[in-house]
Amino acid sequence: MKYALIGCGRISPNHIEAARNNRLDFVAMCDVVPANMQEKADKFGLQAVRRYTDYRELLKKEKPDLVAIATESGKHAAIALDCIAAGCHVIIEKPIALSIADADAIIEAGERAGVVVCANHQNRFNKSVQYMRKALEEGRFGKLSHGAAHIRWNRGKSYYDQAPWRGTWAQDGGCLMNQCIHNIDLLRWFMGDDVDEVMAYTDQLEHPYLEAEDLGMALVKFSNGSYGLIEGTTNVYPRNLEETLYIFGEQGTAKAAGASDNIIEEWRFADGLDDPDSVKRQFSENPPNVYGFGHTPLYADVIDAIENRRAPLVDARAGKRALELVLAIYKSAAEHRPVKLPLTECSTMDFVGRFDK
Fold first, then answer.
1. What is the C-alpha to C-alpha distance for residues 27 and 3, in angstroms, rounded to an integer?
2. Which of 49, 63, 217, 295 is most exposed, with the fewest beta carbons within 10 Å of its own?
3. Per-residue pLDDT tens over the stretch 85-133
4. What mean pLDDT comes out for the span 9-15?
5. Are 314 and 133 in contact (CB under 8 A)?
6. Residues 220-235: pLDDT tens digits?
7. Of 250, 246, 288, nearest in space to 267 by CA
8. Which fold has domain 2-123+295-314?
C-alpha cells in the first residue's frame, strides 16, 4: 500500500513510525519547509522517500493509496478534500477541521468517493482506554452517572514561537482544540456520543500573545441522562501534570490517568470479574511523551478497514463529534448561555477578537 505524509512537523515522527511499523510503502512526503523533510529523512533514514513542497504535485505524481495529513489544523480540511478527490484514503490529524461545514464536506466527500477517512484520535487505542471501553460495552458500569476529562498541561512561549499558527483562530484554536481534544473525544465516546447541551467558560489567563483560550471549563449534558465535566488548560506550572478520564456508573468506577490516559489508576466493579491490581499492571503503559503508543494500532485499524471495506474505529463522523463539542464550548462561553446540540454551523473564526484586550 503506497503511503505519503503531508506535514513533517512536531507530530510527524509518530506517523512515520506507525507507517514503518505497519510496513507501508512510504513513497513520498511533503512540507512547505524543506528543512523539516530533511530532518525527518536524516533521523529515520528516509533518503529514498521523494520530497515535495506542493502536496497537489505529490498527489498527481505519486498517486498514493493512503495519505496522512499532519499540517497545521486550519489546512486539514482543504488538503483532505483534495486527497479524497484524488481517490486516496486519509488519516487526518486532530482536529478533523475547524468548522462544522468543513467537517461535513469531508464526511460527504469520503462517502461519495468510497474511501476510508480516519480522524487521528490515537488515544482510543491506549491499552488502558481499550480495556475501559470493553468494560463499558459489556455493561459492567451499569447506568452511567457522569464522566470527567481533565487535561492539566503546560505550554510556554517557546512552544508557540516554534509555529506562529498555534493559538490562532484561523489555523488552530486554543488549548481545548489543540491539546485537549483527544480527551474530549474520549469523554464523548464513553458517555454515549449524543449531547443535548453544553455550558462553559473559557479564558486567556497566561498567554496574552495568543488569540485563543488557555483555560476551558465545561459541563456537558448527554442525551442518555449522564453528565460530563471538562477541564482543560495549558497553564499548569511548571510542566505537564496529567491527562485523566473518569467514568462513573452505578456498578463501576474507572480512572485512566498518566501523561495521556495511558495508566489505569482506579478499577472498581461490583461484579468482581477481574482483580484490580492485575488490571492496573496489565493495562498500563509508560509512553515517552503525551502522544503515547496509539498511532501504530490506529494505522493498523485503518489498513484493515481499507482491506475489508469497513469504517475505521475513528471515522470522520467521530472526528466531527469531537470538533463539535469543542466548538459548542467556545460558543457557550462566548455567548454566556447554554448551547444545544447538534450544531448546524460554527467555526473557530466565529470567535475572532474574543480575548482582545
1. 6
2. 63
3. 999 999 999 999 999 999 999 999 999 999 999 999 999 999 999 999 9
4. 96
5. no
6. 999 999 999 999 999 9
7. 246
8. Rossmann fold (3.40.50)
316 Cβ contact partners less than 8 Å away, ≥ 6 residues apart:
92, 96, 103, 106, 107, 110, 117, 118, 119
Q: Domain coordinates of the chain in residue numbers?
A: 2-123+295-314, 124-288+321-351
- Distance separating alpha carbons of residues 311 and 116, to the nearest angstrom: 7
CA 231 from centre of chain: 16
CA distances from 185 to 128, 148, 180, 244 (A): 15, 12, 9, 13
Estimate the crossing angle of helix 127-137 against helix 181-190, to 10 degrees: 20
**Grid coordinates representing 167?**
493559538
Instruction: Give the pLDDT confidence score for residue 259 in this predicted structure.
Output: 87
Q: Which residues pair with 28 in a beta bridge?
A: 4, 50
Span 162-181, pLDDT tens digits: 999 999 999 999 999 999 99
For 56-84, the pLDDT digits (tens) are: 999 999 999 999 999 999 999 999 999 99
**CATH code for the structural domain at 124-288+321-351:** 3.30.360.10
